[in-house]
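Priority: medium. Attachment 1 of 2:
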């Protein structure tokens, strides 16, 4: 699934590439304790300071309605094999991470920085403990 930073052989995570995270949340996904980190970065030279201020201010909590909508979107976007091979923890963890990204992108669009002309990107990484 798309927003996570690559880890392992090519790089050891977003923190080494982007520095300290702009946002870090502890959350629960299907009973597992998780931590997510997000970084906001310019996609091209000359990005408006206003866009960065808007993105950094988008630190609202993850509302249950927004999380449920993102979880439903993920569920609908997966084929049968993906649904069967994805654990509940991984599905809920990804939904939480995407909910935060979608909120930032929505706030940028509302401020006049539409996704079709993306000036900033939101990178993320997350991990969860074993579910009980």
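Attachment 2 of 2:
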């Amino acid at each position: 699934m798309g927003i996570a930073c690559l880890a392992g052989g090519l790089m050891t995570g977003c923190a080494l590439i982007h520095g300290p995270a702009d946002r870090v949340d502890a959350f629960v996904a299907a009973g597992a304790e998780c931590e997510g980190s997000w970084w906001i970065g310019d996609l091209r030279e000359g990005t408006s300071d206003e866009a960065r201020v808007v993105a950094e201010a988008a630190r609202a909590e993850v509302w249950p309605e927004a999380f449920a909508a993102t979880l439903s979107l993920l569920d609908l976007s997966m084929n049968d094999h993906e649904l069967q091979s994805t654990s509940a923890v991984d599905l809920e963890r990804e939904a939480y991470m995407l909910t935060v990204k979608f909120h930032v992108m929505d706030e940028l669009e509302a401020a006049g920085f539409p996704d079709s002309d993306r000036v900033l990107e939101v990178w993320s990484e997350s991990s969860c403990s074993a579910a009980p």
